Structures are given as structure tokens and as C-alpha cells.
Amino acid sequence: MEKTFELRGIGKSFPGVRALNEINFTAKGGKVLALLGENGAGKSTLLKIMNGDLHNDEGQMLLDGQPITLHSPQDALAHGISVIYQERQLIPYLSVMENIFLGDLPKTKSGLFDRRKLIKDTQKIIDDFGLPIDPQEPVGMLNVAYQQMVEIMKTYRRNPDIIAYDESTAPLTDSEIKILFDLIRRQKEEGKVIIYVSHRLNEIFEISDEIVVLKDGNYVTTLQTAQTTEQELIKCMVGRDIGDTYANLKRNDKYGDVILEVKDLKTPSVHDINLTIRKGEVVGLAGLVGAGRTEVARALFGADPVLSGEILLDGKPVHFHTPRDAINAGIALCPEDRKDQGLVMYRTIRDNVSMPVIDKTVKAGIFTDEKKMTELGENAVKKFDIKTPTIYKNVVELSGGNQQKVILGRWTNELMDTKVMILDEPTKGIDVGTKAEIYQMVCDFAKQGMAVIFISSELTEVINVADRIVVMHNGHITGEVKREDATEENVLSLAMLD
Amino acid sequence: MTKSKSGGFFKELLQKKVFPLIILLIVEIVVFSLWASGIGSKFFAITTIRNILNNMVFAAFLTIGAGCLMLSGNMDLSASTIGAMAGVVCAWSVTHSVPWYFAMLIGIIVGILFGLLNAFIITKFRFPSFIATLGMSSVVRGLMYFASSIGKEDASAQNINFTNDIMYDIGNKKLFSEFTILLVIMLIIYIIFAILVARTKFGTKVKMLGGNPIAANLAGINSKGIITLLYVISGGMAGIAGTLFACKMQQGSLQALSTAQFTGLTGAILGGISFGGGEGGLGGAFVGMLILNTFTVGMSVCNVNSNLATIFNGLLLIIALALDFFRQARRNKV
């Protein structure tokens, strides 16, 4: 009988966030169903529910028409469901074979574990994949692409009927992608249900038979891969044409004096950094992950040590030993990782907004001025349209976009005098609507006379929002392009320049 | 769970987390009152209250330091040993004809210096505070035993006995007929720190740091400065507790305060100061200590082997930790 896996009315809420709403679709055996959606569309949550890591609040899952309830990943496995997560779940100091057979190690008659059989069985799997991996090598010694393949082997070994691949190709090179796709095609022929999650449209067109599009936790549509186009897919994902967002931005067109000048800056991870930024200018920092953009930001903010070179603010040389020094001088940083570096998650919006000015919101020298803090919090909520019933809500309950707005509110509260605003991946994991709002905020900061450094890994975004784009590779600047001249191709070629 | 307007001492008591503790305390008092009257004894009396409060004086000083540190996500396991050291140094000074006030001051300064040393190791080398202070505790204890054994024929360390009338009065005299001077000193200092934590920029920064040290640093909160100050407070409080203990006993005792550390930490955790930092206040910790000491005193009023109270205290600590653990695990799941 043909396998089917059906989701019926699946819904899931987290405090303050509706992650999934009425998700309905059926994946059939012998077909590859691609799951497509932007960050925050709900794909990860859906996969976690499929794998028994999370429990759906509403709706049910049906396996071959029978309703199933999953309490744990073990339950899912027992039903033959296996999800290969984006984050690898390997134990780095255990060998390849121990990782692959974890929890199911072969035993000899005397009850000890059977090393010879383990090596033999693992070698067989590795041969099926055709990879030059030693079963006895610790996983941590392999490169990330091979680690990812080991993760896939782990699932392959259990031979599940329903397999979900979550961005599995992200760390792979072309040759392993080919091996993976061959495997998926074999599994498809065996009649297994394959759910394939990826951002890479070309892969989706290559491997999938049908495409389910999610947006903001809602089911949008199911498309037949053979009958659709990239344009149509993007339109479904985004809900409208992306072109508009950038064209509608109200940009700043008046630059002031030079506010920040960086000369030959060198830190442990970047070198020869030269930058000049004027008031009212938005400078994009583009580059691949690990190019050193965040490190430049941190050095300018006093969070990383400067080995040599000069930073001039308003023409005067400055030396920041701590972020506090930088903040006092008028530099602000919205860090890359909101949750870990930006916010105190279990404190209120109000407290998070007032953080850098705790010393200024005081009465009689030491006592906290609750009224003043409340005022700062309320103004930030108004100014950035933060969606919350009250400023006394802990930021953990807000959506990603609203959390980001809290950080923006922090650096622009009326007790701050921010001259240089550094935004590191400000739209990461944020829905499209809020992204557009944040782009406009970036332009507004510039209009208010701030210099903005806009760091982003999304090329489209950085070349369309920034006035000029500085491209980094391997710790140094490889070039600069104006927005008018910037294309994804020329920025990318600079980003990959050796 | 929303810890909204960071309220003051009394508001904090009324917050959800402390409320069940107060209920627990009341239940405890009722149970012991009934039990005591059943065996013809009396629990609900001014003497009992006096005993409970007097019992927790030294632990309370350590709780001030431990509580503030835990709020910032740090620990100090060396406080009781530092306190004992301060007491020994104070006693030694008195026996070497140093004036009493100066000897006490020296004791407190010893505490502060070891606090600074802790802070230096932790902020400079970024050691986990748990390990750094555990090591420091051993170093201080060794130093104390070594120094007090110098010149002895069998190299055995001994407590230093002394007599000083003023110091004896400080440690034992009663004010308002029932309550000791020590208790009054403790209450004043405790309330000052409870207010500092709940109401001032210092307290806010400590809690931010405990909530997320990286974010706090990137938002301009001087984490090294705050942590240093907190260890100085912890060391200083240990110094005060140690010298006052020496006053009370007329002795620089090598084993001073060893149970106070446990009561102080348990009280803080029981009182809702999260091990992960960032949440709670000294008010809750006070109620936590009251619960522990009420039990100890209650057991003795009811003529039960007092060792059973130690078992109960240990179990309470485990339960308090488990609750804290579940609370954090639930958070991390989101």
C-alpha cells in the first residue's frame, strides 16, 4: 500500500506568538514534497512537531490514514518518522560508527558490544554513499560536509518510511549534494515519503515533485513543481512582489560632515580596514559568513580589542576599551544575535529599552526613576510600533521583529545621543512585513543625521537598502560599490575574491 | 512569571514567587504550635521568635553577599571560610593588644581583601565563579590553619581565645529586653541591602547582568566593575559576620560560620533567587531563611533530635533547586 502522511489543521502557539495556524497537506509515498517559506514561516516548528520534539496544540497527524500522537522523538521513530535537522545532532568525540548506531549498538553473545560487526555494518553504509570516510574516526575530526553526511547516514541506517530533510544541503559541496540527491531518488523509488526543506530554489526545482508554501505560520498553497516558475514561488512566499519594498523606501539624500573615519584598523580577526562615513549615510557591509563584518562592528564598539590603526569620531581619535566607552561617545550596536547578545529575555520591554541609560534614570543619585523608565519604554513602543499590550511584558514573549524593535528603541531613546548606528543582521529571522518597516527605520535614522552601518548576509537587502556597499572577504575589504551600480553578481564576486 | 515593576521590599514579598513561601512558613508555625501544645510545650511565644531570629543572624550576613552574587549569576563558596579567617585575625589582633575597634576593622578588611582577590581571579581569568571560590575556600582555610599552628610544638591548629568586655557586650547584650544587638545590626544592614537591590540602579544592573551577561555588557553595563563590587560586598559581609561571631564567642574559631554558609545559600535559593541569576530579591531570601530556622527551632521546642532538622534543610535545598531547575527548563523549551 502506498504510504501517506497527512497533516490536518495543525496549530501551535508559543507565548505571544502564533507559530502555526491550520496547516493542511498530504505527503504521498514515492514523491518528494518540498516545504518552502521564509524564515519564521513555521517550517522548523512543523518539523519539530513531526519529530515529536514539540506537541501540536490543535489538529492531528495521520499516518496511512491512522491518527498518531507523538510524545517524543522515540515515538516518531517507532512510527518510522525521522527528521534530519538543520543543526547537526552528532557527538563530536564519538566515532562515525558510534554516532550512526547510537542507542542501537550491536552486541556479542556475552553482552559486550560487537566492535567488528559495528565496523562492518558502518562500512556498508558508507559504501552505499560512496564516501571516503573511516568508520572509526571521531566525527569532530571530519569537515562539516562529511559531518552532515554522517547525520544523513544515521537516519538512513534506521530506514524510516517518512524522512524530512531540513536544509540538509547547506554545508554540502556539489559532489555531496549529488550523492544526497541520488539517495533521495532511491528512497523515492522505494515508495518512501520525502519532505524536503530548503531555501535554494534551484534544488527544489531539481528534486521535488510538489511544493507546499508556508507564510507566517499559515498554509499558502500547494504547487506542482513541473508547472510553476521561480517568480510564482517567490510571489507565494512573500505575498507580493519584493521589488516594491525597496522602491517605496523614503531615503535620505542629504549627507553631512564625515562623522566616522577608520584608518588601517587591525584586530585579531580583521586587518587593513579603512572606512569613511558621513552623517546621514547608510553604508552596507556585505560579505560571506566569516568575512569579518561582525568583527569590524565589535571593534568599533569597543567589544573587541584593537591591535593597531585609528578610529576618528568627529575628527578626534577615540580609544574604546569597553562598549560603555563607545556608547558614551555616541556609537550603538544592535548585535547579530538578538537573544544571546541583545536582550535580557526575561526582563520587560521597559527595562530592556532603558538598559544603557540606567545611570541617567535615577532620583536622588541612586534610586531608579520608575516613571522615567516607563516613559522611555512607552515612547519606544509608540515610535517603533512595537506590538504589545504593555511595556511590562517580558521581551521573550515578543516576536522576533518586535524584539529587534526593542533594541532599536534602546539606542534611540531620548536619553541617548547616538551618532553612529551599527546594525548587525537586523532582519535575521524576521517576517517580510517587519523587514520592510526596519528598512524604512534605517533610512529614518539616516534622515535624523545618524551614520548607519548596515551589515547583512542577504545580498538583495544590503544592495537595495545601503547607499554604498563595502564588501569584505577573509578579514579585509575587497571593494566598494554604489547602490546604483550594485548587482548581486558584482557584490558576490567581490565577496568571494581571494 | 512577569516580574513587572521592580517593587520594593514589601511589594516583593507579595509577588507570586514569595507568596507560597509565606504560606509554607505559616503552615510550619501552625503545625509546630499544635505539636508543641500536644506535648505540653509552647511554640508560639516571644522566646521562640527570638530564638529563630537570633539563630539566623550570621547566615543572614552571608545571604546578603550570596544573594546579590547569585542575582548576578555568580557564586561565592568561600564566604564562610573568609568569615572564619576574619574572626581569627580579629581575635589574634585583640590578643596582641590591638584596640577592639581596630581589631574588628582589621577583620572586616581581611574579608574585603579576600573578596577582591576572588573578583580579580574571576574577572581577569574568566574562571567560573563556582570553581574559583571553591579553590579560594580551601586556600583560605589552609592559610588559617597553617598560621594558627606556627610555633606550636605539635603543629596543631588551635582556636584563639580572648576576653574583651566591650566585644562581649556587642556579641551578647540584649536591646529591648529580648533581641540582641547583633540582631539589630543585622536587620539594619539587611534592609539597606534589600532596598539597594530592589530600588536602585545598582540592583537593576546586577539583575540585568544575571539575566544575560553578554547583552548587559553590550548595552554598556560595566560587568567587571559590578562583579568586583559584589565580591567585595560578599567578602565584607563575611568579614562582619566573622568578627561579630568572634565577639559573641570571645574566640577566633577555625570552624566558625560553617553551617551559616549552607543556611544562607539554601535560604536564597528557597527564597526564589534563581541559580541562573537575574531573578528574585533579598526579601524572598529572608523568608527562605525564616522557614529553615523555624524548622530547626520548632524541632527543638518539640524535643525532636535536632539532627533531623539538618536532614529537612538538605531536602528543602534539593526541592528548591529542583523547582528552579524545572522553571528554567520550561523557559529553555520555548
Characterize the structure shown.
The complex is a heterodimer of chains A (498) and B (334). Chain A has 498 residues and is α/β, with parallel strands linked by helices. Chain A has 2 domains: 4-240, 3-Layer(aba) Sandwich (Rossmann fold), CATH 3.40.50.300; 244-495, P-loop containing nucleotide triphosphate hydrolases (Rossmann fold), CATH 3.40.50. Chain A is built from 18 helices and 22 strands. The radius of gyration of chain B is 20 Å and the shape is globular. In chain B, strands 1-4 form a two-stranded antiparallel sheet. A two-stranded antiparallel sheet of chain B has the order 2-3. Chain B has a single domain (9-26, 54-326), classed as ABC transporter involved in vitamin B12 uptake, BtuC (Orthogonal Bundle). Chain B is built from 15 helices and 4 strands. Classes of the chains: A alpha/beta (498), B mainly alpha (334). The interface between A and B is medium-sized, with 36 and 30 residues.
Descriptors:
heterodimer, A: Rossmann fold, 2 domains, six-stranded mixed sheet, B: 334 residues, mainly alpha, ABC transporter involved in vitamin B12 uptake, BtuC, two-stranded antiparallel ribbon, disordered N terminus
What is the domain tally of chain A? 2
Q: Strand arrangement, largest sheet of chain B?
A: 1-4
Low-confidence stretches of chain A: none
Number of helices of chain B: 15
Q: Tell me the name of the CATH homologous superfamily of the largest domain in chain A.
A: P-loop containing nucleotide triphosphate hydrolases
Overall geometry of chain A: globular
**Text of the CATH class of chain B:** Mainly Alpha
